[in-house]
Amino acid sequence: MYGRRRRTQHERAPCSSPSLGAATTAFLARQHQAFIGGQWVNAESGQTLDTFDPGFGRVIAKVAACDAPDVDKAVAAARHAFEDGPWSRASGSDRARMMWRLADLIERHAAELAELESLNNGKPLAAVRNIDIALSCEVLRYTAGWATKITGETISLSTAPQMHAFTLREPIGVIGQIIPWNSPIMMAAWKLAPALAAGCTIVLKPAEQTPLTALRLAQLIQEAGIPDGVVNIVPGFGPSAGAAIAAHPDVDKVAFTGSGEVGRLIIQAAAGNLKKISLELGGKSPVIVFPDADMRVAVPGAARAIFANSGQVCAAGSRLYVHKSVFDQIIEGIAVEAKKIRVGHALSDGTQMGPLVSKEQLERVSGYVEQGQKDGVTVVTGGKRIGDEGYFIEPTILTNTRPEMSVVREEIFGPVLCAMTFDDEDLDRIAKEANRTVYGLAGSVWTRDLGIAHKMVRKIRAGTIGVNVHGSIDPALPFGGFKQSGWGREKGRDVLDLYTEVKAVVMSL
Ligand code: NAI
Ligand code: MG
Predict the structure, then answer these.
(1) Which ligand 1 atom sits nearest the alpha carbon of residue 364?
(2) Mapping DSSP to helix (H, G, I), strand (E, B) and coil, where does residue 319 land?
(3) What would the mean pLDDT of 219-240 be, rounded to a whole number?
(4) What's 227's DSSP letter?
C-alpha cells in the first residue's frame, strides 16, 4: 500500500473521515471503563478523559479517568491475585501457555487492534500491523520461554564449605507500569510480558493520549485465561493515576517509560516504601557516518532513524555526524528521502508518516524548530506545520547547528534531524562529540571498516549500538540506557533481573 501516489511536497493526503471496520466501530461505541480485578468499572469520581484522532484533532472516545481511589482498588486486586489466587500457584509452564494464548489472540485480532491504534496514535496502519503488533506478539512468545527457565544457583560457601547454599529467584510482587503514547500496544506488551513470565501481578496505566488498545488488550487478557486481578488497567492522567501508582505503599516496583522529567518524579514518589524502579527515558542518539560508508545504505538508514514514527521514538537518530567529505552528498540524499515521504492520515491509503500524537507535541516540536531558527540554524527542508487540521509537521533537516543549541541538546521527539560535520580521523574526538549529551540510549556507526566499527562501538556510551543499521529492536536484545536514558534493561534475559528478587538460602545439614 506504500507509495501508490507519490507527492514531492507535503500536502496532507485527503481523508474526510476514516472508514473503520465493524469490530473497531463496535469497540469505540462501548463504554471505556477501567479493568480492575477482572471487572469493568467506572472511575470512582465518575470522571472521564477525552481521547483523540490526531489526524483530525477530533475526540473519538471518552475513557474513565482514574485517580488514587481507583489505583487503590487495582493494587488490592493485584495483591490478592499475587498472594492468594490461582496465579500464585501457577507454574512457569502454565504462565507461558497463557502468554502464548494472549499472543495468538493479539494476532487473531491484529486488523482491529491495528486500526484502533492507528486511529488513536496517528501511526500509519501498515507500520502498526508489521511492527507494533508483530513485535507485541513476538515479545510475549519470546519472554514466555523464560517463564520455565527462571532458576537460582547452588553456591559453594567460601567460609563454611560444609553448609548447603543456593539461591532462589522469586517474583518481586505487585508491579506498577506506566507507559507512554508513542507505541502504545507494543509498550504494554513489552511491560506485561516479563512481569507475567516472572509471576508478578500488574497495575498498568496507559498514556492519557492513547488508552484504547490497552483496554482492548484487557479483554484479550481475560479471554486468554489469565486470572482476574493479575493484570489491571487504570487509564488516567499522569499527575493523578500515574502519581498514585508511583507513590503507592503496596506497589513493590514501578516500571516506567517516558520523559526524564517524570522519571525524576517517580524516583521521588517511590522513596516512601523504597519500591524498586526501572526507567526507560529519552535519548538524543548519534548517527555517525564515515566517508567509506556505503551511501546507498547510510542515506536511507539515517532517514529512517529520524523519520520513522514521525520521530516519536526514544532511540531516534536525531544527531547526525557526517565526515566533511561526504556531508553534502548525505544531506542531499536524506533531503530527497524526506521530501518523498507521504504524510497523511494514518488510515489513508499510502500514508508513510502520520501526524504527531497531540496538539502539545505539535507545539513542542514546532517550538524547538523556531528556537533553532532564532539560534541560527539552516532549515534544509521542512520545518513547517502541514495544513491546519490535525497535528502534522514536515520531515525536517537542520544544518549549521552547534552543540550548545537546544535543538542539539534536548530530545525533540519529532521528525527533526540536526546535522553536524567532523573532519578529522581521530576516533576519540569523534566519539567525544557523539557522547556530548546527558543521554545514552542508542547510537549508530556507518562504515565498511571493521576496525573503525569495533573501536567506535566501544567508545560510544549508549545502551544499543548499530553498525550500518540504527535502533534495531528485538525481543531477545536487551534495551535500555546509559546515563540519563534510564535504569535497567528490558527484554532479553536481562529483563528478568527487573522482575525477580534473589533469595539466598543457607542450610546447616
Ligand atoms: P510523560 O513522561 O509526561 O508521559 C509518559 C507517561 O507518564 C504517561 O502515561 C503519563 O500519564 C505518565 N505521567 C505523567 N506525569 C506523571 C506523574 N507525575 N507521575 C506518574 N506518571 C506520570 O511524557 P509526555 O509529557 O507525554 O511527553 C513529553 C516528552 O517526553 C516527549 O516530547 C519526549 O521527549 C519524552 N517521551 C519519551 C518517551 C520514551 O519513549 N522514552 C515516550 C514519551 C515521551
Ligand atoms: Mg508530561
Answers:
(1) 32
(2) strand
(3) 98
(4) P
- For 446-485, what is each residue's pLDDT tens digit? 999 999 999 999 999 999 999 999 988 999 999 999 999 9
- The 10 Å CB-count burial string (b at 16+, else e) for 372-390 is beebebebbbbbebbeeeb
| Least confident residue range of 1-15, 450-464, 484-498 | 1-15
Check if the beta carbon of residue 246 is closer than 8 Å to that of residue 266.
Answer: yes
Q: Kindly state the DSSP code that residue 415 receives in the 8-state scheme.
A: S
Q: What is the model's pLDDT at position 8?
A: 41
Q: Who contacts 183 (Cβ-Cβ below 8 Å, separation ≥6)?
A: 121, 123, 132, 309, 313
Cα(263) to centroid(ligand 2), Å: 10
- Classify 262 as helix, strand or coil: helix
Q: Is 413 in the pocket of ligand 1 (CB under 6 A)?
A: yes
Cell of 81: 491475585
Which atom from ligand 1 is nearest to the alpha carbon of 261?
Answer: 2
Q: 262 in ligand 1 pocket by Cβ < 6 Å?
A: yes
Q: HSE of 400 in the Cβ direction (CA atoms, 13 Å)? A: 9
Retrieve residue 26's grid coordinates. Answer: 463496535
Cβ–ligand 1 distance for 207 under 6 Å, the answer: yes
Give CA–CA dist 194/235, Å, rounded. Answer: 21
Distance 208 CA to ligand 2 centre (A): 10
Give this prediction's pTM. 0.97
- 149-207 per-position pLDDT tens digit: 999 999 999 999 999 999 999 999 999 999 999 999 999 999 999 999 999 999 999 99
Please state, as a whole number, how many other Cβ atoms lie within 10 Å of the Cβ of residue 404: 9
CA 438 to chain centre: 19
Instruction: Read off the amino acid at residue 133.
Output: I
Whether 5 has a pLDDT exceeding 70, the answer reads no
